[in-house]
Amino acid sequence: MTATDTGASTSATATSAGSEEDLLARVSAPQGQGRQIREPATGAVLGAAPVHSKQDLDAAVAAARAAQPAWAASGHEQRSQVLLRMADRIDALAEPLARLLAREQGKPLNGPNARFEVGACSAWLRATAATTLEPQVVVDDGATRAELTYRPVGVVGAIGPWNWPLMITIWQVAPALRMGNAVVVKPSEYTPLSVLALISILNEELPEGVLSAVSGEGEVGARLASHPDVDKVMFTGSTATGRRIIESSAGNLARLTLELGGNDAGIVLPDADPQAIADGLFWGAFINTGQTCAALKRLYVHDSLYEEVVDALADVARAMPMGASLDETSVLGPLQNKQQFDVVARLVEDAKQRGGRIVTGGQPATELGELFFPVTLIADLKDGDPLVDEEQFGPALPIIRYSEIDDAVASANRLEAGLGASVWSADPAAARAVAERIQAGTVWINSHGGVHPMVPFGGVKGSGYGLEFGVEGLKAVAAPQVISAASPTIAPTA
Ligand code: NAD
Fold first, then answer.
1. Phi and psi angles of residue 302, each rounded to the nearest 5 degrees, phi first
2. What is the radius of gyration, based on Cα positions, of the chain?
3. C-beta separation of 108 from 102 below 8 A
4. Which of 480, 377, 453 minimizes the C-alpha distance to 147?
5. Which of 96, 190, 452, 478 has a CA-to-CA distance to 269 between 20 and 30 Å?
6. Taking 90 as the threshold, does the pLDDT of residue 492 lie above it?
7. Residue 138 belongs to what H/E stretch?
8. Active-site residue flag, 121
9. Beta bridge mates, 140
């Protein structure tokens, strides 16, 4: 099967018919072929994803290369219109897409989960359509007029994770298309079907070859990242894979945007109101059942209000229903895969052995299904404990006591990760002073993890480099070009 046989990569052959089964039929591997995908909440087989070969990948990149110049020539206005129409198509199929996402990824329909994620896809497309990257006159001194302009880079490889598979695909694809690039997407092997369905919907508005997808495991991503005809790699995933992509870029000199793992700290200052911040802390940590790059992953609370914050958080946690993805009452779901479940179970078990105090949760919720782990708050842990130092990427939050703010800042900064962080306080100036001392791409004050299509987002240190969203996000998928014009009345220098 070739990449263009999947329906995920062809243009306009599919129609906008109505259920998640229709979407699945568009993108599934032929009967008896492909890689079986199971629903995390139930263990039932959802479908089979195509597994693309090296030849398929080469064909997709060649098609992208061939289609890109005409797409670039179509101009910003036309491409923006295409993005707007894509958003309308997603809205028209929002419910089946959300159901497919819920079944494949495991996240519930409600809460900040599947319906929310699909809504974010069309919102991001519309915002990206409305964003412009203007040329900038950098020198105009009578002798020279130098203008910084932005051209498409060419072919973009977009490699994504399984936690927010649709939204992150749109984060990569929308600016790349907007700037006149062609894109080849490699979805996570855990959540390929929903991403292929999304690509198939987007392709209803695109010329053939401009956007395609290759599906398979890590080696397909490795081939895409190292392909000699790929000019830019947008990668979102683990820091370990990010390092491999940096190595492969030595071969093809691809530009990179690397959105890697996080271990975000939150610091609660002594003047915070525990009741007022409990809900924000909870969703900061447990959005998508904790499987979020910029989730709050370790919480530092001042000694003076430690127990009050722990109690307030526990009250919120106990009120949040966890359950099957298609159950309308659930707002928390299973871990997406066994590997991640095992990471969370191991770190929680280890934290118990080290004297961590289980406030809520602590044991797998086997009554719900094989991959469910309840919201687990663990108090009295310290720096150096693996649940604090490693990225848990799941519903377990270590809560650490501090008494000196300098120590809390040092704790926040001591790890390799530098994606996000937050400071919680009734005093905005005090919070800001702490925020400025934290080594992270974003520091939120009195919230955690919110993103906005016009606000640049990206990590520092081990969380990668490059920015997404807004004007900075468009620059990241563009090749800068300076047009430098000498005044005709002035002789050029030797
Ligand atoms: P992962 O690195 O295992 O996989 C991500 C993607 O890379 C998958 O599509 C995979 O097939 C592919 N891949 C694997 N090996 C590859 C290789 N050698 N070359 C190229 N591609 C390869 O990550 P994951 O487990 O899917 O995602 C979880 C991680 O992603 C967490 O660490 C999380 O913090 C991070 N993440 C970061 C952000 C962000 O914006 N910074 C957002 C979401 C997730």
1. -65, 140
2. 23
3. yes
4. 480
5. 452
6. no
7. strand 136-140
8. no
9. 145
Crossing angle, helix 76-92 and helix 165-178, to 10 degrees? 160
**pTM assigned to the model:** 0.95
Domains of the chain: 3-260+459-481 (3.40.605.10), 264-445 (3.40.309.10)
Specify the residue for token string 């984060």.
171
Q: What gap in Å lies between CA 267 and CA 412, rounded to an integer?
A: 8
CB-ligand 1 contact for 272 (6 Å cutoff): no
Cβ 35 under 6 angstroms from ligand 1: no
Residue 464 and residue 458 in contact, taking contact as beta carbons nearer than 8 Å: yes
- CA angle 290/222/452 to nearest 5° reads 40
Residue with CA closest to ligand 1 atom 16: 218
pLDDT in tens, 83-119: 999 999 999 999 999 999 999 999 999 999 999 999 9
DSSP 270: T
Catalytic residue among 39, 104, 189, 293: 293
pLDDT tens digits for 424-473? Answer: 999 999 999 999 999 999 999 999 999 999 999 999 999 999 999 999 99
Largest CA distance in the chain: 82
Can you tell me the distance from the alpha carbon of 280 to that of 446, in angstroms, rounded to the nearest whole number? 7
Inter-residue contact 91 to 255 (CB < 8 Å): no
259 is catalytic: yes
Phi, psi of 21 (to 5 degrees): -65, -40
- Are 174 and 198 in contact by the 8 Å Cβ rule? The answer is no
Which atom from ligand 1 is nearest to the alpha carbon of 248? 19
Is pLDDT above 50 for 14?
no
Task: At 55, list the tokens.
Answer: 């030849």
The residue from 205, 259, 468, 472 that is catalytic is 259
Tokens matching residue 102: 């819920």
What per-residue confidence (pLDDT) applies to 361?
98
**Sheet strands side by side (includes 136-140):** 136-140, 144-152, 478-486
Q: Do the Cβ atoms of 109 and 454 come closer than 8 Å?
A: no
241 Cα–ligand 1 center, Å: 6
CA of 161 to the centre of ligand 1 (A): 5
